[in-house]
Design brief:
mainly alpha, 3 helices, elongated
Length: 110
């Protein structure tokens, strides 16, 4: 039901539900290439020239692509923040350990 020259929806669904671990390297490369081509076609083909079905599919797949991109960006931000907190906690622990060591060795000022 896809427009001519576009990746069939059945292929998109099949590729999505089949884990990459069950695909050959060649299949993964093919999916990546045909997926990239279809994304470009989705973005450059005017809405008025798309069938109602293709327009609907593009809306769904475009929205999921945008959501994935946003999630990836937010995930990176969360990871960076977690790394900063971990580094800060590590420094605080090292400072506390150093202070305790100085106190126990008697070199702390009284």
């Amino acid at each position: 039901m896809s427009d001519a020259g576009r990746k069939p929806v059945s292929d998109k669904i099949s590729e999505t539900i089949t884990p990459d671990s069950q695909k050959s390297y060649a299949e993964q490369i093919k999916e990546s290439a045909t997926g990239a081509y279809d994304k470009v076609a989705r973005d450059i083909q005017p809405e008025e020239s798309k069938s109602t079905f293709q327009s609907g599919v593009d809306s769904v797949t475009g929205g999921s692509s945008d959501a994935k991109k946003s999630a990836d960006e937010n995930s990176a931000s969360f990871v960076d923040t977690a790394k900063e907190y971990a580094a800060s906690a590590q420094q605080s622990a090292a400072d506390a350990l150093n202070s305790a060591s100085e106190y126990l060795s008697g070199s702390a000022k009284k």
